[in-house]
Amino acid sequence: MSQNLNNVIKQAEQIILGKPQQIRFALACLLARGHLLIEDLPGVGKTTLAHVLARTLGLQFQRIQFTSDLLPADILGVSVYQRDTGEFKFHPGPIFAQMILADEINRATPKAQSALLEAMEEQQVTIEGTTRALPAPFFVIATQNPAYQIGTFALPESQLDRFLMRIQMGYPDAHAERGLLSGVDRREIVAQLSPQMESNELLALQKRAREIFVSPALLDYVQAILRHTREQARYTHGLSPRAGLALLSAARAWALLDGRDAVIPEDVQAVLPGVVSHRLQAVGEHTKRSSELLVRDLIEAVAIP
Amino acid sequence: MNKSLIYGLLLSILMVIAPHADHLPIWVSSMCVGLLLWRGYLVYSGKALPKRWLLMSITFAGTVGIIFNFHTLFGREAGVTLLLMLAALKLMELRNARDAMVLVYLACFIIITNFFYSQSISTALYMLATLMVIVTTWVHLQAQGIALKPRLRIAAVLLMQALPLTLILFILFPRVQGPLWGLPQDAYASTGLDDRMSPGSLSRLGLSEAVAFRVTYSDKPPRRDQMYWRGPVLWYFDGRTWTPGIVTLSEAPKFTEVSQPIDYSVTLEPHNKPWLFALDVPDKLSVQSKLTYDFQVLNKEPVHARMRYTARSYLAYHANLQEAPRQLQRGLQLPRQSNPRAQQLAAEWRAGSKDDAAIVNTALSYFYKQGFVYTLEPPLLGSNTVDDFLFGTKQGFCEHYASAFVFLMRAANIPARVVTGYLGGEFNEVGNYYIVRQSDAHAWAEVWLAGKGWVRVDPTGAIAPDRVERGLSAALSDTAALPFMERNPPEWMRSLRFDLDALANQWNQWVLGYDTERQFAVLTRLGMESVTWQNMAINMMSGLAIVIALFALFMLRHLYTRQPDKVQAVWLKLCRKLADAGLPRAAHEGAQDYAVRVAAARPELAEAIHDLATRYTALRYGAHREEQAQREFIHLIQKFPSFRRTS
To answer: Chain A contact for B592, CB < 8 A?
Structure first.
């Protein structure tokens, strides 16, 4: 694995204490050219994570705070009439950055949400008839507050599918929290962080991730997982082929992070919680189980062929 | 074209041509051998093939030779000869794969022609071996790079796969009665009883071991001295040769006071004559046949193919008590002015006896007392055969005795006739049937006595009772002239011969004798409700389709089942070993995770298991699988210690 990638992980771990797994998920998501949805309470370090990644990876960073009055133009940008030239000049919105933090995405109206989601999907935006490419790499971290759903527009399942992974931050453990509380202000450290990588290098890594080898034996395993979710009555519906592709590309990125040139079943199992928890819904008595346990059950139910 | 392929083709052609050698004209055989040797030399030396004009002239000369030899190019003999010659010539212009293909097909076709001449088990086995050689050569032609051993294996597998198809075709292919399946008349060697008997004709048969027919008795077999198998009845004597004469009556014979019925079935070898053999005297036969006035059974047509029939005979009988005067007159025919001494002897007997039966007895005791000898090699007789024999040589085989006896009876005014056929047979314990060979051929006499009808008298019995009771070899004092097996062979050889004959019998019954009737019986027993050719064809087609579909399913199995991976298999073996150590791998557990868990539980195994897990994941999920790495991995797992089961 690239030494720089290692440094990125190390640096992030120094700031976001006790969350190595989440950091790796976020990186894997980035390497797989997917987007990340973080669902958790405010104040658990979602924003910090995005900040840290942007700084250490040397990406342009933009934060969009989603509110109920946010309009698509606020995200994409707007053309303004220039009196001196008599022409319209396009003023790019915050979406024209390499890393976007879409904070509290569920507080905006579906109209604003879909503007972002379409940009995520197509890596380009069409404004007033002109198509404009978004910068590369392009990575969106959206956050969503699950606790207070009053006056919010929760993302429907079809939209959730646009995110490669959904993770939760969770509270830090006692040791990490102690370090957090006793240490220097995080924001100051973040400001001082030096980039460990150039965006070109990141693009190269993304390319490498796509080239990680997947053997027929591993495809068997992935298919077995997909088949299981489709055959079992405990899920409202099985995983889509797109989910299968997402699982593979995430597993490839995970293998790259582990410094391997081929995907092994452990990679699939590792990324499975992030990739499928927002795509699978349990029915009946199983709804009470947390999505984490649901994925655990899934892993244990499918034998590695 | 590579050398070993050409050698393979040479061997194929040699093997299919070889059995024909004994009936090909000698010049054709030598020509074929010459061509094969020449071709072999050309391959060996790497020299060029002969010029086209040379081949053309050889072909032309050979064809002309065949026309000259057979006066035709068609028909079995000429056609087969032409085919063989052309096959050998084709070898000389073997240039590309297409020529080789033609030769392979030609060789397959020549296999069939061999069955025109012999259909025995040994021929079939030899042809199977030949087919194996041909198919192996064919595989070589299709896939040049394969070594001999796998080529043989592929050929064997192909032949095995053909087996069920062959079986279905054999059982179900509609058999047609009649000439469509019949072979030309000259397909059969003609050995067996003739309807002409002259001195020496039967003793010549006595040397032949060929099987005449086989008999299975439904119940207890009759006594040996009652096993008279009735064949042609001879009435007319010209002084040397007995013939049936001109048949004048077509009435049915009459039996009276019959008793001791006996049922049996006969499998008759083809002998190209119309008569069928049955025990004296036959009553009913399962096949359409005619029972003549003198109790011969005649088939509708000459027996060209092996034939099976069941029959019922009566061992005790009175035959034709009321004989037509014309018939009795025929029984008194004698050549004019021949054998005066015998005539005179008969006249003396007639004068000194009170009835016919006494004369018969006198004659028998005459043979018994006058020092007659029973021998396979009697001396030659002059023009008055009966006189020469009775008063001169006094050595003879059964035909001499039967002939002389009937002559004497007729001379004494007692109606008499010669009956030829077979006597006795050899019991085969293995197959529980009797074999009647040509060497069992026999001739005896029948005389007509008022109040008794036609009575069988066997003059041979008077001088050599052993012939009647125990068989030919027991009756002859000098057995040197007999074939080896007819003398006293060692016991193991006898039983081996019985085994082989029993096998041949089964082959005849079930393979060669599988005709319309057999087929009907078999299919009915197999549960087919109406055996029509349409049903057979439908069943045959669907049977073939099913078998081919099964083969296809089997051969295309890689499409629906993945070949078990060798690496995976040995990995699972390692997991089983560790499971014995109390560390079973969960089904969903990846190799690396498992290695971590095993290493934690058994630190002494940590290094090995990590190494193996890494190798395994690299082999199973990696982009490149190297043979060497795979071998090492398999070797390491085999070396990995086994544990005693802890549970």
So the answer is: yes
Please indicate, yes or no, whether residues A168 and A264 belong to a single structural domain of this protein: no
* Residue of chain B minimizing CA distance to A269: B590
What is the extent of the structural domain holding B101?
Answer: 3-146
CB contact under 8 A, B623 and A300: no
Helix (H, G, I), strand (E, B) or coil at A237: coil
Say if the Cβ atoms of B568 and A217 lie within 8 Å.
yes
- Chosen for mutation from B561, B562, B585, B588 (greatest number of chain A CBs closer than 10 Å) is B588
* Straight-line distance from the first to the last Cα atom of chain B, in angstroms, rounded to the nearest whole number: 65
Cross-strand bridge partners of residue A130: A127
CB-CB: which of B592, B618, B621 is closest to A217? B621
Which residues of chain A are within 8 Å of residue B622 when distances are taken between CB atoms?
213, 215, 261-262
Q: What tokens were used for B452?
A: 């008794």
Please check whether residue B618 touches A, CB under 8 A.
Answer: yes
B458 labelled catalytic: yes
Tell me, what CATH number does A291's domain have?
A: 1.10.8.80
Point out the residue among B568, B586, B590 whose CB comes nearest to the CB of A264.
B590
Instruction: Answer whether residue A204 is part of any domain.
Output: no
- Minimal C-alpha gap between A269 and chain B (Å): 9
Looking at the fold, whether A189 and A217 belong to one and the same domain comes out as: no
- Provide the CATH number for the domain around residue A146: 3.40.50.300
Closest chain A residue to B568, measured at CA:
A305
Rounded distance, CA B396 to CA B443, Å? Answer: 12
Domain end among A199, A227, A253: A199
pLDDT band at B182 (very low <50, low <70, confident <90, very high): very low
In this structure, is residue A54 part of a structural domain?
A: yes
Residues B119 and B221 occupy one common structural domain:
no
Say yes or no: B610 contacts chain A, CB-CB below 8 A.
no
Task: Give the dihedral sign, CA B218/B223/B224/B229.
Answer: negative
Check CB contact under 8 Å for A266 and B565: no
Per-residue pLDDT for A284 more than 70?
Answer: no
Structure tokens at B38: 């020449």
Domain count, chain A: 2
For residue range B371-427, list pLDDT tens digits in order: 888 887 788 888 888 888 888 888 888 888 888 899 989 988 889 999 999 988 888
Q: Could you tell me if residue A288 is inside a domain?
A: yes
Q: Kindly state whether B623 is in contact with chain A, defined as any CB-CB distance less than 8 angstroms.
A: yes
Domains contained in chain B, number: 3
One domain for residues B314 and B444: yes
Q: Which element (helix H / strand E) includes A65?
A: strand A61-65
Question: Based on the number of CB atoms within 10 Å of its own CB, is B618 exposed (0-12), middle (13-18) or buried (19 or more)?
Answer: buried
Other Cβ atoms within 10 Å of B442 Cβ, number: 28
| Structural domain ending residue among the three candidates A144, A165, A199 | A199
State which H helix or E strand residue A226 sits in: helix A216-231
- With a cut of 80, say whether residue A282 has pLDDT above it: no
Q: What are the tens digits of pLDDT across the range B241-272?
A: 888 887 766 677 777 767 788 899 898 888 88
Which residue range is the domain that position A264 belongs to? Answer: 212-301
Helix H or strand E encompassing B85 = helix B75-90
- Contact indicator for B445, B455 with CB cutoff of 8 Å: no
B442 catalytic per annotation: yes
Instruction: Report yes or no for ipTM above 0.90.
Output: no
**How far is B573 from chain A, CA to nearest CA, in Å?**
14
Q: What is the pLDDT of residues A3-17, one digit of tens each?
A: 778 888 888 888 888
Catalytic residue among B387, B398, B501, B575: B398
